[in-house]
Amino acid sequence: MCYFCGMKWKMVVLALVVMSVVGCNSRRPLPTQEELLRQDSLERLARQQKPRVYDSPEEEMLMQLPYRTLPVTYEEGFEQSLPGFEEIAPTMVPSLLGVSGLTKTKAIRLPDKDSIHVVLVGGLNAMGDPIVYMTTLSPRWEPVDKLAVYEQSDPEEEDEEYADDEFVDEEDLGKVRIEFSVTSRYVIYMQVVFQSYVDDERELEGVSVYSIGRDGKFFELEENELNHGAEE
What rounded mean pLDDT belongs to the chain? Predict the structure, then answer.
């Protein structure tokens, strides 16, 4: 073996030994329990969402209301229990939602319609009867419009001639109420129903259909504007 070949072979062996030693020295020991806990805390902190900054106290209060998806349909007793709704001070309702004259008020937030915010607010009216409004608010959370989607009344209380009639048939005694159903596209069906006090019979007296315009105003849909097959 030539001198230079022998030297070259020794240099290769020496390089391999050095690399092996460096590799051994670069190995880190396993992390301690304290280090793992610290790392876990930092990772959880990084995953936490930053608190939302609201533009106004009104926005903060309304955004923190419970949220309900659509579609939604009236069910017996809905107006009494207002399921999922949250109590809201009656004194705040006129400025927040543009509805006045209610007591025992509760509200729930619905999905936005384009850039318009939508809220259901229920309570008792001046007569002590339950009533539910759908209200719309601008992108800046200012009240725009409202629509009573549930209310009830006694015909004999509203019609003086009816109330003075001493010969009213028993079958005509009952309550008239508006019930509602809302699709995911904000087609709002409202039906007027008469429910007898005598036999609990229900009689449909009429149906109206509304929607929400880009300006947040409620408007009634004509029959030829309805596309029942496309709605849920």
Answer: 79
